Every structure is written in C-alpha cells, then in structure tokens.
Amino acid sequence: MLALALYRLPYAEQAMMLKGETEEFLSCHELNGREGFVFAPFHITPEQPVILIRPWEVSPLPLFSFAAGNDHLQHYFEENHLTTAEPDPDYAADFATFHAQLQAGTFQKLVLSRCAVETPDRRHDYIELFRTACSAYPRMFVSVVLTEKGGLWLSATPELLLAGDGERWRTTALAGTMKLEGEQLSFDTPTPVGAGRRDVEWSDKNIREQRLVATYISACLSRFTTDIREEGPRTVRAANLAHLRSDFSFTLPDSQHIGDLLHELYPTPAVCGLPKREAFEFIVQHEHTPRGYYSGFMGPLGVESATHLYVNLRCMEIREKDYRLYAGGGLLTDSTVSQEWLETEAKLETMRALAHV
Predict the structure, then answer these.
(1) What count of Cα atoms within 13 Å lies in the side-chain half-sphere of residue 254?
(2) Are 20 and 3 in contact (CB under 8 A)?
(3) Nearest 5 degrees, angle CA 200-CA 204-CA 210?
(4) Domains of the chain listed by start with CATH number
(5) Which neighbouring-strand residues pair with 156?
C-alpha cells in the first residue's frame, strides 16, 4: 500500500506531498541517520510501531483559499461555548484515579486524555480537509498521514517537538490552556490591543504546569549540548485557544543521532507527566481509551536537509464511517474534573469544526 503524507509548516504558503514506502521501528533510537516522514505513537508496540515513510517522491501541493470554510469555523467557535458540558462517566472515573495519585504525591503531573467519536454529515475527501485546515489554522503544523499500519490521521498541532537544518536546532515547552472568546478570536496573539480587549490572565496552575515542562526540556537538552538558549514563556494562539510557550534554541555537534535525542525528549511532560517513566506506565495502564498515534509525533526528518517534528495534538483518526477525535490535559493537585473536562472540550473543537464543515 502506498504511504502518503501531506504537510504544511506554520505560516507557510505552500504545502508538501510526500509519497513512499514504510519502515517500522520499535525505538526512537532507530531513527538515527534516517530520512523520511516520521509517524510515531504515544506507546510504541509491534502493533503500533514508529513508522517512517521513505520518500520516493516529494512535491509541492497547491493550496487554495477556503473563505466559506473559514467563515463557518469562526461562527462555530463563537457559537459553541460548551459551558454546561458534564464529564462522561469514563472520564470522571479516570480523573478520580489520576487525581488520587497526584494528591498522594506519587506524581508531580499526569496528563489525562479522552476520545470523542463524531459522525460527519458527509464523507470528506481528506485532501479537502487538509486544505481547509491549512486555510483555517495558519499558525499550526497541519498534516495528513496515510499508512497501512497507522491508518488515516489529520492533525493541526501547535506544539513543536524538534526542528533544525544542521547544527542549529529548536524545540518548545507548550503547556497551559485557555479558551479564547469574543473579541479575542479576532486577533493573532492575545495581547492588549485597543479598548475592550484584554490579554489572557493565566492561573497559577497553568503557570506551574508550563514551568514543569520547560524545566524538563532544559534538563534533557543539557545531556546533549551546553549551548542552550531559552526565551519565554509568552502567550501564543492556536485556533480557539491560547497557550503558554517557551522557546529553546541549541546546537548539536552530531546531528546523526537525532533518534537518541528524541528518545530522551519524548514524551515530554506536556503529554505524559512527571516522573516521566512512571507517569508513562501509569497512563498506559489506566486511561480508558488507548491513545494510538494521538500525542505521538510526526513530521519530516531530514527531508531536503530539514527536520520539522511536531507532537500529534488537535488530531482525528478518519475511519470509514466516523472520526475519532482526541484531546487531553495536564492534571496537578489543584485540578478539578469540571475544569479539565471543559479544557478537553475546547481542544476538541479544533477538529470538530472541520468534521462539520
């Protein structure tokens, strides 16, 4: 079966189409010295491996302006506030299990995810969905990945995992979430602009959560380089949400061992928890719905001498009769089930809006 990846970098005016054959790996270490499009799951298993599409064709894909789709999405975000949504029983049970461990001091942070199934009014062509997402979400990395083992996934994610084109590299610590409403939806980055507009006011919980991720990333990078520069955090927008983000730039003397760095870096506390290994095992054992390739990572690795890997957030698995949408949130000791549920609902809107265009 032909493997295919479509992708558009944030703010880029052109998308790329990559076609090729797949290789499967059971460790990020095996990506050392490789080139192609990576599609990695949260939990690597023989049934759910790291997939590398080795390209035999890389070509530009024309993008069009979908004004009607954009109008629909803007209206969707303005009208769907979801302020009365109640957690479903499975999520409430998972939250209780996770939160008890946090209160007992077993973990500093745990990320709890969930899946929602949407039945669209009509079956969408995935290239149409991709182009609409590119037009609607210019700040985000947008991709469609089709492989025999992984299935068909659409993603519009704000979280960079690793990017570079030689010695200089970048990554981010993205955590903390707040839904944008009203006039905040009409501008790019939420900063005070004019009368009646206010910047996002971050809670202590969001600030602490973001700092945990930034500290973890800094420690991981220090095992590979001493030349690390951190900037932030600052508020950034992603679709109908705002996040806190710190940006890291660093040098790598040996770029042939990117797989080793990915093994150390991923999963970050933004999608897993702390301590990392124990949190990962707890999540795999206790979440009601397996994540699949949600909260894994994907993107071009060394394609045309550049790497752009992103965490697979704001995504959906496109199946024959329905779409499986995924979202999660970071839990700390002061998290509440109602607040966390509403955060996942807000994150799901990114893909729900596309499902009903």
Answers:
(1) 9
(2) yes
(3) 80
(4) 3-355 (3.60.120.10)
(5) 142
Q: Could you read off the pLDDT tens digit of each residue along the chain, which spans 357 residues?
A: 689 999 999 999 899 999 999 999 999 999 999 999 999 999 999 999 999 999 999 999 888 654 444 555 555 555 655 554 789 999 999 999 999 999 999 999 999 999 999 988 777 789 999 999 999 999 899 999 999 999 999 999 999 999 998 889 999 999 888 887 766 555 555 443 333 445 678 889 999 999 999 999 999 999 999 999 999 898 888 877 888 999 999 999 888 899 999 999 999 999 999 999 999 999 999 999 899 999 999 999 999 889 999 999 999 999 988 999 999 999 999 999 999 999 999 999 999 989 877
The count of C-alpha atoms lying within 13 angstroms of the C-alpha of 44, restricted to the half-sphere facing its C-beta, is 16
Q: What is d(CA 49, CA 46) in angstroms, rounded to the nearest whole number?
A: 5
Q: Hunting for tokens 């550049």 — which residue is that?
A: 306
DSSP 280: H
Of 18, 106, 84, nearest to 56 by C-alpha is: 18
Q: Which contacts qualify for 231-237: CB closer than 8 Å, 24 or more apart?
A: 232/173, 233/173, 233/176, 233/207, 235/189, 235/190, 235/191, 235/199, 235/200, 235/202, 236/139, 236/158, 236/174, 236/189, 237/139, 237/180, 237/188, 237/189, 237/190
316 touches 325 (CB < 8 A): yes
- Give me the residue label for tokens 């939160």: 99
Phi, psi values for residue 97, rounded to 5°? -65, -45
Phi, psi of 187 (to 5 degrees): -130, 170
Rounded (10°) angle between helices 67-79 and 126-136: 70
Query: CA 5 to CA 144: how far, in whole Å?
Result: 6
Is residue 257 packed enough to be buried (19+ CB in 10 Å), middle (13-18) or exposed (0-12)? middle
Q: Could you give the CA distance from residue 235 to residue 253 in angstroms, rounded to a whole number? A: 31
Is residue 172 within 8 A of residue 249, CB to CB? The reply is: no
For 276, the 3-state DSSP assignment is: helix
